[in-house]
Specification:
10 strands; about 290 residues; elongated; four-stranded antiparallel beta sheet; 6 helices; DNA-binding
Length: about 290
DNA sequence: CAGGTATCCTGTCCGC
DNA sequence: TGCGGACAGGATACCT
């Protein structure tokens, strides 16, 4: 199964849910599982049970805002409570018709909405994290996440692409830049004309800035298309996205480069499938 | 410090 | 047709 909610997918969910949820009161009507991860990913990080109470799940709250940083979406209530949603690999936060009935972990009734709000996640790589107030939310985000890959200035993103590690691993590091996953890392590197294996230090200032701008434009274009629906992803209204039509390299190893026609190369970098064009993406980056 | 690997998890796809 | 195993990867712990 391939489904990777990255920043554009989360942003599409946020935009779709805002008109449905803002100003509305929610009520927890069902908790399907009590053993979701407190945070996405990791092993042995403990299953959270105690917090999986209605209070932590915003029972009885009125939603005042939906905020996103990177791949995390915070639901903020009028009384200060916050619930952060991480979709992980296969998660969905949806309020609309035709939602798959399986793997529904939490359901809320939304006042004056025709459908319940549903958090479902077949593979349970995602999770829900409650915070007592917005202050603790922002403190956690500042501690764990770099600047948002869509909202931050390109110069701010470029400043984070440093060190000896490969430029792709830097892009995937949420503490460096928040929001880029495996799909858009490869797409942005293709757009910038940079070999994903290049160490950050080997990129000159112009190449780093070009990459930062490519990250922003790649994500912006994907958001404009409603995110990429590889398989499971749906917007907050349960619609499919169309950004997958923009993918130039992701999932295309061995196929011809859309720019030059040469065979796209594929390998594994940091355990992740990586695709690039050896012709258009030279080590150290294409000269401007 | 950087990279590789195992872990978590389930649905999908492939070969036999 | 069916079944076992590889594969997909976001985040993290641990080892080299």
């Amino acid at each position: 199964m391939r489904t990777l909610p990255e920043l554009p997918e989360i942003e599409s969910v946020r935009r779709a849910l805002a008109p449905v949820l803002l100003g509305r009161a929610v009520r927890v009507v069902r908790v399907g599982r009590h053993d979701m991860r407190a945070r996405g990913g990791g092993r042995g990080d403990g299953r959270a049970r105690a917090w999986m109470k209605r209070d932590a799940l915003l029972h009885g709250a009125t939603i005042t805002s939906l905020e996103r940083r990177g791949k995390r979406l915070a639901i903020i209530a009028a009384d200060g409570r916050v619930l952060v949603v991480q979709l992980g690999m296969s998660g969905q936060l949806v309020c609309g018709p035709g939602i798959d009935p399986t793997h529904r972990h939490v359901e809320w009734a939304v006042r004056h909405a025709g459908h319940p709000l549903v958090f479902r996640d077949p593979r349970r790589f995602g999770g829900l994290t409650p915070y007592p107030d917005a202050r603790s939310l922002y403190a956690a985000w500042d501690r764990e996440l770099g600047p948002d890959a869509l909202e931050a200035e390109a110069t701010a993103l470029a400043a984070r692409l440093r060190g000896l590690r490969s430029v792709k691993s830097a892009l995937l590091d949420q503490a460096a830049i928040a929001g880029v996953g495996n799909i858009y890392a490869d797409e942005a590197l293709f757009r910038a004309g940079i070999d994903p294996r290049t160490r950050c230090r080997r990129l000159d200032a112009a190449a780093v800035l070009r990459l930062a701008e490519s990250v922003r434009s790649t994500l912006r274009d994907a958001v404009a298309h409603g995110g990429s629906t590889i398989r499971d992803y749906r917007t907050g209204r349960n619609d499919r996205g169309r950004a997958q039509l923009l993918h130039a390299v992701y999932g295309r190893a061995g196929e011809p480069c859309l720019a030059c026609g040469s065979k796209l190369r594929g390998t594994r970098l940091g355990g992740r499938a990586t695709v690039w064009c050896g012709c258009c993406q030279p080590a150290g980056g294409r000269r401007a």
